[in-house]
């Protein structure tokens, strides 16, 4: 009887060990194949945003509101047209608006929403705080 019990316990422990090792190995494979969210975004600087919007020229201005302005531009070394939302950080609620917008876009997926390509936060040429969101540009065909 002791032999049968020890044999059954040994077999069960081998199955448990095999199952555990298999689950851990598959979890590691999934982590290797998924890229982080940061790798999907473009790496942009103030200078590249300035160049893409041609110095934030009025000719590229496509919208203006209390929290900032939106400019059309082209990414350097690419044919991709982008929309650059520059926040007016002099407005006290602009930073909060940015965080709310990012949180909403992070959690919502819909075919009619434009894709966020990147964000940039830093300082401009006058050492003022500078924050932008960069979207895929979509022509407004409904208006």
From TrEMBL:
Extract the InterPro entries matched here: Kinase-like_dom_sf (IPR011009), Plant_receptor-like_S/T_kinase (IPR051809), Prot_kinase_dom (IPR000719), Protein_kinase_ATP_BS (IPR017441), Ser-Thr/Tyr_kinase_cat_dom (IPR001245)
Example GO molecular function term?
protein kinase activity
Q: Could you name the Gene Ontology cellular component terms for this entry?
A: membrane
Q: Which domain of life is it from?
A: Eukaryota
Intracellular or extracellular location(s): Membrane
PROSITE patterns from the UniProt entry:
PROTEIN_KINASE_ATP (PS00107), PROTEIN_KINASE_DOM (PS50011)
Q: Give every Protein kinase domain span.
A: 56-143
Q: Which UniProt keywords apply?
A: ATP-binding, Leucine-rich repeat, Membrane, Nucleotide-binding, Repeat, Signal, Transmembrane, Transmembrane helix
Give the stretches traversing the membrane.
none
> Where ATP is bound, by residue?
85
Q: Where is the signal peptide?
A: 1-18
Q: Under what name is this protein listed?
A: Protein kinase domain-containing protein
Organism listed in the record = Prunus dulcis
Q: What taxonomic lineage is listed for the species of origin?
A: Eukaryota, Viridiplantae, Streptophyta, Embryophyta, Tracheophyta
């Amino acid at each position: 009887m002791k032999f049968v019990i020890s044999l059954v316990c040994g077999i069960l422990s081998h199955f448990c060990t095999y199952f555990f090792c298999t689950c851990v190995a598959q979890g590691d494979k999934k982590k290797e194949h998924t890229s982080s969210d940061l790798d999907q975004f473009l790496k942009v600087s103030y200078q590249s945003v300035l160049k893409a919007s041609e110095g934030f020229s009025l000719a590229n201005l496509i919208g203006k509101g209390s929290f900032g302005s939106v400019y059309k531009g082209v990414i350097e070394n690419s044919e991709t047209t982008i929309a650059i939302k520059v926040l007016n950080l002099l407005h006290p609620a602009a930073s909060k608006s940015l965080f709310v917008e990012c949180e909403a876009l992070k959690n919502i997926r819909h075919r009619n929403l434009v894709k966020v390509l990147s964000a940039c936060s830093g300082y401009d040429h006058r050492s003022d705080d500078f924050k932008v969101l960069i979207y895929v540009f979509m022509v407004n065909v409904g208006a």
